[in-house]
Amino acid sequence: MVDYTSQIREYIELECEVLKKLDIQAVNAAMNLILEAYQADRQIYIFGNGGSAATASHYQNDFNKGISEYVEQKFRFACLNDNIATVMAIANDIGYEEVFRFQLENRLEDGDLVIAISGSGNSENVLRAAAYAKEQGNRVIGMCGYDGGKLKELADVALHADVGSMQVTEDVHMVFDHMMMSIFYRSLCGREHLQK
What we know:
This protein is of the alpha/beta class. It has eight helices and five strands; from the N terminus they run ααβαβααβαβαβα. Helices cover about 55% and strands about 10% of the residues.
């Protein structure tokens, strides 16, 4: 039997260190942007590549079903990486760097919010979509890791996991999701915890 216990402990300790360093004011600011979009019945577009695509899809699920099941007004999250046919058509016919920006083009409306996820903070297709949203006057929440990359500077609010590990970065991005979901669940639904 291989003893992985010291490596397991190291991973957990690193995760705890990163969580303790999080900018709580940035999380609060991001939550207020999400709440503003929700209260105005605006779209919230979210997207990323690879593991960040799975994270984006998870956010959509947690807000559109998890919270929305218990409130009359529903969240309007739209995950731009979930329609594989659309993503592949854009990538094939136009270019992979356009898979998110193209979906936002002439679709963004005043008050819509964009949540862009890139572990490195430098994914070209994510940056193009975020820059387009900013050009249209929309707010952008950028979720990133490592040194934050270009996304940290571009975003109105950066949710930054300050760590040189993609795995821990993606873990923390999911912590943001479940933390915000839990708090909104309590404040909007009047329940302490999701029962299901």
